[in-house]
UniProtKB/TrEMBL annotation:
<dbReference type="GO" id="GO:0005886">
    <property type="term" value="C:plasma membrane"/>
</dbReference>
<dbReference type="GO" id="GO:0005524">
    <property type="term" value="F:ATP binding"/>
</dbReference>
<dbReference type="InterPro" id="IPR009325">
    <property type="entry name" value="DUF983"/>
</dbReference>
<protein>
    <submittedName>
        <fullName>Uncharacterized conserved protein, DUF983 family</fullName>
    </submittedName>
</protein>
<feature type="transmembrane region" description="Helical">
    <location>
        <begin position="29"/>
        <end position="49"/>
    </location>
</feature>
<keyword id="KW-1133">Transmembrane helix</keyword>
<dbReference type="Pfam" id="PF06170">
    <property type="entry name" value="DUF983"/>
</dbReference>
<keyword id="KW-0472">Membrane</keyword>
<feature type="transmembrane region" description="Helical">
    <location>
        <begin position="55"/>
        <end position="77"/>
    </location>
</feature>
<keyword id="KW-0812">Transmembrane</keyword>
<dbReference type="InterPro" id="IPR036640">
    <property type="entry name" value="ABC1_TM_sf"/>
</dbReference>
Length: 98
């Protein structure tokens, strides 16, 4: 599905599905911020109260963890939102015909 880190391919290499419909927008970033905020703040608070390391050690620990988790979670969430968009046949400005 992905070509590179977060860029979508033009089409699926297995079934040939084109990703013209795919527009995840800011959804993955919003969900990633909320999820990572919960995980990272909880982790930082736990480490601070349990071990009380100096501030520089917090920076060495949590900066790489934040970057790695952010990129990983963004990729997963972008794929999930595009898959849900395909499954539900969602499109911009398209209303349900009920």
């Amino acid at each position: 599905m992905f070509q590179g880190l977060l860029k979508l391919r033009a089409s699926c290499s297995r079934c040939g599905l084109t990703y013209d419909f795919a527009d995840s927008g800011d959804g993955p970033a919003v969900f990633a911020i909320l999820i990572l905020g919960f995980i990272l703040v909880g982790g930082v608070l736990f480490v601070e109260f349990a071990y009380q390391p100096p501030l520089w050690l917090h920076m060495i620990i949590w900066a790489p963890v934040t970057v790695v988790l952010s990129v990983t979670l963004l990729r997963v969430l972008k794929g999930l939102l595009i898959a849900l968009q395909y499954k539900n046949n969602a499109a911009e400005g398209k209303l349900d015909d009920r």
